[in-house]
Amino acid sequence: MSQEFDYDVVVVGGGPAGLSAALYTVRLGLETAVFDRGGGRAAMMQDTHNVIGVTEETSGAEFLRTAREQVESYGGDHQQALVEEVTSLADDAGEGDAADDGAGERDSDADLGFRVVAGGEEYDARRVVLATGFTDERPDPPLPRTGRGLHYCLHCDAYMFVDEPVYVMGTGDSAAYVAMIMLNFTGEVDVLTRGAEPEWSEDTATMLENHPVDVIREEIAGMNRDGNGWLESFEFEDGTTREYRGGFPMYGSDYHAELADALGLERNDDGTVAVDDHGRTSRDGVYAVGDLTPGHNQIPVAMGEGANAGIAVHMDLRPFPRSTGGIEELGPVSESDVPAISPELLATAVTHEGHAAGPREGVEPEEEAAADD
Asked: Spans of biased composition, class Acidic residues (predicted)?
């Protein structure tokens, strides 16, 4: 890493996508920091579903804690701090945005790096990964507890309600579609518009009329829960009570894209940040992963996106192999140039339990790194 940068990579966001990206970059020899404001959708999970190798009783908080410990064990930094600003040092220097040369190639100003302001401190990084996610729009109370009758992930939690009565809240096409999808798991599904008029399309209305889904238009007046805090039923303003074990509010998502917008990143019509298959955004040197980007909002998907972006950052920044043009400019790679990993990460690697040699008893990390040099 050049001395002019504090980090090779700064990851903004400490969810599954951001931590996966950080795990890859630090293990691939890049000085990495994760800035995590805390909270997030994964942290709210009562149980972890659909993550192979992770059992149901693992909470989101436990899952993320283990991930943070992994990143730190390889030499990555983790700081709980809100990132207030990310700016391009090229813009600060007056270089402007990367421009198209007319042949599909762009002159990159990414190598000048980025300035990250977090917790009132400034850090310069060669690359930035945005993993800021989104917040689900929450309906008005009365509501059951999240994870105990109020659920935001159909593909995660539908299994929980096989052959149980289920509600879907909302007035748009997405609410109607989720209600019809839930018929794959249970025969008792209601759409609750909560006093509002449906806004779904005529085609959706025709589909809904031809599926055994009830549309309940009255507002919810009260709620009943069992001794474990799980939803049992809703009471409506017309005096009726309907039993439900759980359900899904469908009111949209609030993307945390303030940093993306400040950097001028391209966004899709649905609010997500536009990326390629490796998480590269419309701005060179900036990557985006996880719920901030298009695709299924699932932990395994987010982890895969983080891995892809981490590998892409490594390929972008690794100095070797040196190209023929680089050899002409800089000369051949000498023995003193390698390995291309900082002394700190080198010392961590050779004593880590995941290293080929494993921890060597009786040798301090600094002494071992020097011996390997």
From this structure: 364-373
Question: Considering only the top CATH level, what class is 7-134+253-318?
Answer: alpha beta
Sign, CA torsion 132/136/141/143: negative
Q: Is the pLDDT of residue 305 over 70?
A: yes
Tokens representing 264 are 């001028």
At 241, give phi and psi (nearest 5°).
-130, 130
Amino acid at 216: I
Residues 6+ apart with CB under 8 A from 362: none
Strands 106-107 and 241-243: unpaired
Q: Where does 138-249 sit in CATH, by number?
A: 3.50.50.60
User: Quick one: tokens of 9?
Assistant: 């990579």
Q: Is the CB of residue 287 less than 8 Å from the CB of residue 276? A: no
Give kind and range of the element (H or E) at residue 307: helix 299-317
pLDDT for the residue 100: 42
User: Cα separation of 255 and 234, whole Å?
Assistant: 30
Q: What is the DSSP string of 131-191?
A: ---EEEPPPPSS-PPBTTTB---HHHHGGGGTTS-EEEE-SSHHHHHHHHHGGGT-S-EEE
Give the global pTM. 0.88
Please check whether the two domains, 7-134+253-318 and 138-249, share a CATH topology: yes
Residue 141: which of 227, 231, 228, 214 has the closest Cα? Answer: 231
Contact (CB, 8 A) for 178 and 154: yes
Mean pLDDT of 29-50: 82
